[in-house]
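Both lines are quoted verbatim for reference:

——
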Amino acid sequence: MVYPNMVAGEFVARPNRFIAHVIIDGELQVCHVKNTGRCRELLQPGAKVWCQKADNPNRKTAYDLIKVQKGERLINMDSQAPNVIAREWLLSGGLGAVENLRPETVHGDSRFDFSFTLNGKPCFLEVKGVTLEHDGVCAFPDAPTQRGTKHLKGLTEAVRQGCGAYVLFVIQMKDVKYIHPNNATDPAFGAALREAAAAGVHILAVDCHVTETATQIADPGEVRL
């Protein structure tokens, strides 16, 4: 996934979850934040960030805040990116030769990020973008997510109905040790993830190679339940 028109800036403040104040080329800009999560450990005053200049000159905000430097790691915090690069990964054979790839597919009472056919079996895949990291260890979620737990239960039910089911944690950075469910923040999600794994849902993780202008899936990651 390539981001054109990227510029560097310095994070100042986040008045609400939708906007951030960033100094770009010496001027204070109001930027749209492409992640409604807390991201408190990322958006610290003085942090170096990368923003994308919008094509539409009539937009209320001229920039989107996309990436942030945290220590030695460059992290993509765009919450729309994981689905885009997961689709690229699927089409490039990440799971093998998938057919009939479709986004946003309803099954039962859930809407999953992708559906496809693999080895003749109908399958569903849910993508979870990961930005929370501490000392090389990643966790998901960074805030309670009833919707995420519902997805896991829906995938578990899909397996019981004879379908294939996958969770793909897209770790939006490189050089991490492993990822685990954030039981302290959302124990229900962690319990549902372990139940899903026991039922036959495939729990996968991949990290990403992140540069100032691009993000792409790099290597498989370790999931510790």
The chain has a mean pLDDT of 96. The radius of gyration is 18 Å. The domain at 81-220 is CATH 3.40.1350.60 (Trna Endonuclease; Chain: A, domain 1).
